[in-house]
Design a protein that fits this description.
Shape: elongated
CATH class of the largest domain: Mainly Beta
Number of strands: 10
Number of helices: 7
Structural class: alpha/beta
Order of helices and strands: HHEHHEEEHEEHEEEHE
Length: 288
């Protein structure tokens, strides 16, 4: 009997140790993920966070950041003590600002981050190259949930403000919302471990956490029809206008074909190929 009780206790203890950590909504929240993907560095719980100067962000572009060399000293194991408590390279000690287009966003169900995929503003061909080519010009930025950011983080208030603003405007849920949003995004550089994230940069660079989002043009949600056309990746070419060019209204998110009422006439517009317009999230105006 005694041997049986010991065996049961050991089994229960092993189960607890091996079970995935779950979010804890306490003042010490965030510690539950310290064994996972450098959570302390992502949220400012590491010793070097207070040395990062948030008051002087450096203007940059997605194109520049994704060309940075990934720090060779960054451990391969995200759960190592070194990875959890150290920042690697100058980029992880720098606050960047990017003039960007948000392409899609969602709520991550494990760590409750907002996962946001961006490109440089008006880089309409950023997602043209195949994923495996390493030539895509997109990257990920993430906004943590305040409740899982440790209270001592110097960025907690900024993270919370950015999160509230983004939530109030866009209401992310657990599936991607496809929407082209022109925004100025400010956050701390961070090299993530690449594990198949949607929109991940070839070198794993992110802005994590995001400290501020200034929305310039909120755009429109892309319908399932237009999203399926954009995601077809050439499997079936969309119908194009006679000369291949349409006029995109950059404010409303619609485009006009030659011969229609507003072709070439709206403010903040641009000519582009119709297949590029669809791929970038624009859709035809009614009645065409």
């Amino acid at each position: 009997m005694r041997k049986h009780v010991v065996t049961v206790l050991l089994t229960a203890a092993c189960a607890l140790l091996l079970a995935p950590a779950q979010p804890q909504r306490t003042d010490e929240a965030g510690l539950f993920l310290q064994r996972k993907e450098r959570w302390a560095v992502k949220t400012g719980a590491d010793p070097a966070a207070r040395q990062v100067r948030t008051g002087s962000p450096q203007a940059t572009t997605v194109a520049r950041l994704i060309k940075l060399r990934r720090p060779p000293e960054l451990p391969r194991d995200a759960t190592s003590v070194a990875a959890q408590t150290s920042r690697y390279g100058l980029s992880e000690r720098t606050v960047f600002t990017i003039d960007a287009d948000i392409l899609r966003y969602k709520l991550e169900t494990d760590d409750h981050d907002y996962h946001i995929v961006i490109r440089d503003h008006d880089d309409f061909r950023a997602e043209d190259p195949p994923i495996e080519s390493g030539r895509r010009r997109t990257m990920v930025v993430e906004i943590p949930e305040e409740a899982v950011v440790i209270a001592s983080s110097p960025w907690r208030k900024s993270i919370a403000a950015a999160r509230r603003e983004f939530t109030s405007l866009f209401h992310p849920h657990s599936r991607f919302t496809y929407r082209v949003i022109h925004a100025r995004i400010t956050g701390v550089g961070f090299f993530d471990f690449i594990h198949g994230q949607s929109g991940a940069a070839p070198n794993g660079i992110e802005l994590h956490p995001v400290l501020h989002v200034e929305v310039i043009d909120a755009g429109q949600v892309i319908t399932n029809l237009h999203r399926s056309q954009a995601d077809a990746a050439g499997a079936s070419r969309p119908r194009v206008s006679a000369n291949g060019q349409v006029w995109v209204n950059l404010s409303s998110g619609v485009y006009w074909r030659p011969g229609t009422r507003y072709y070439g006439k709206t403010k903040r517009g641009a000519y582009m190929r119709e297949d590029e317009a669809i791929k970038s999230g624009y859709h035809t105006a009614g009645g065409q």
